[in-house]
């Protein structure tokens, strides 16, 4: 990209700029990008201009949004594509069985990513639509599942960072979160009781690849009908089924 910057430094800046965008901030101006990345406005302008030139960003006047090239590249990642296709077979069945909203989540670099959702007639998707498409790892059943069974590097990074509160029930003490992760490993699934959205809870189970959780199935609904003994067996069964099917196509 002929910017005069060394490759590693330029890639770090590109990563910071891409990470500044979120579901709640799909379009950002230069000043907001500089604030979110910690980079100088002149640097953001120079790097963002090059990113527009190669399709990583789109520009509308003085504001920027993520470019469609990112979506196209994301669809080419084999593991992501295969997992989504396999999981699609089970999302509807799980929603019909539980009569609640079902979410497929992947671990992102900094957050849990909600990548597929199936809204049952009774579930309505209310709990999911009250949050962004990405949430902190320590908030909710999906994140706790990924921390308990996923990449240890993610767990170490989360534990070393402040655990910010989303609701009065969010776990913000590292020792308490560690105890919750131990419980999750023992029982094979995680439970969220209003830790992410007030009035809602969830049960989540892992999907594995080579012994590491790479996704989760999560059933979410109003806290007053969070029947864990009923939900946990079907959610964990779905996770095992997707694990089996995914591993069979990746042997």
Give me a quick take on this structure.
The protein is α+β, with helices and mostly antiparallel strands and 251 residues long. It contains ten helices and nine strands. The chain is globular and about 55 Å long.
Ordered list of secondary-structure elements with their pairings:
Elements: H1 7-19, E1 27-29, H2 30-37, H3 41-53, E2 57-60, E3 63-66, H4 68-74, H5 78-98, E4 101-107, E5 112-118, H6 126-129, E6 134-135, H7 140-149, H8 152-159, H9 174-187, E7 190-193, E8 200-209, E9 212-222, H10 228-249
Antiparallel strand pairs: 1-3, 2-3, 4-5, 4-9, 5-6, 7-8, 8-9
Would you mind describing this structure in some detail?
- The protein has 251 residues and is α+β, with helices and mostly antiparallel strands.
- The chain folds into two domains: 7-72, Winged helix-like DNA-binding domain superfamily/Winged helix DNA-binding domain (Arc Repressor Mutant, subunit A, Orthogonal Bundle); 77-249, Beta-Lactamase (2-Layer Sandwich).
- It is 48% helix and 21% strand.
- The protein has ten helices and nine strands.
- It has helices at residues 7-19, 30-37, 41-53, 68-74, 78-98, 126-129, 140-149, 152-159, 174-187, 228-249; strands at 27-29, 57-60, 63-66, 101-107, 112-118, 134-135, 190-193, 200-209, 212-222.
- The strands form two sheets. A six-stranded antiparallel beta sheet has the order 6-5-4-9-8-7, sandwiched between helices. A three-stranded antiparallel beta sheet has the order 1-3-2.
- Helix 1 (7-19) crosses helix 2 (30-37), helix 2 (30-37) packs across helix 3 (41-53) and helix 5 runs antiparallel to helix 10 (228-249).
- The longest helix has 22 residues, at 228-249.
- It is globular, with a radius of gyration of 19 Å.
- The two termini are 38 Å apart.
